[in-house]
Amino acid sequence: MTMRDQSDKLVAAYITAAEAGDAEALVSLYTEEALILTPGNPPISGRQAIEEYYKESIGDGFKLTLNILDFQEQGDTAYVAGTWESGGDSGNWLEVYKRQSDDSLLVHRQCTNSH
């Protein structure tokens, strides 16, 4: 499977878990050392903090659309940028994916903003 295919699969898994309100499934998509940067929040670092963040920020009826605008890969790292829409809000996102020892990709860095 190409890195792009893995990236698309990761994005689809993220949408499924977010719309299900499944913080545990979401956090499984991140590396242990992951870092999330969101507007109005301090940096969210590590899986435990990320799981708490998702438990507080998603719930029943959450709908999410992610569009990929750019994909680049370099070695064991992929860079993905796009737009998001949810509940009348929208913005941009940038993620850095890191290849794991089992050849899978996980989110290592994530940054979002709002329009």
Structure summarized in a few sentences:
This protein is of the alpha+beta class and 115 residues long. It has helices spanning 3-20, 23-27, 47-57, and strands at residues 30-37, 44-45, 65-74, 77-86, 89-99, 105-114.
Biggest sheet: strands side by side, in what order? 2-1-6-5-4-3
Order of helices and strands: HHEEHEEEE
The average pLDDT value, as a whole number, equals 95
Largest sheet descriptor: 6 strands, mixed
**What is the CATH architecture annotation?**
Roll
Computed over alpha carbons, the radius of gyration is: 13 Å
What is the name of the CATH topology?
Answer: Nuclear Transport Factor 2, Chain: A
List the keywords.
globular, 6-stranded mixed sheet, Nuclear Transport Factor 2, Chain: A, 6 strands, 115 residues
Write up what this structure looks like.
The protein has 115 residues and is an alpha+beta fold. The protein has a single domain, classed as Nuclear Transport Factor 2, Chain: A. Strands 2-1-6-5-4-3 form a 6-stranded mixed beta sheet.
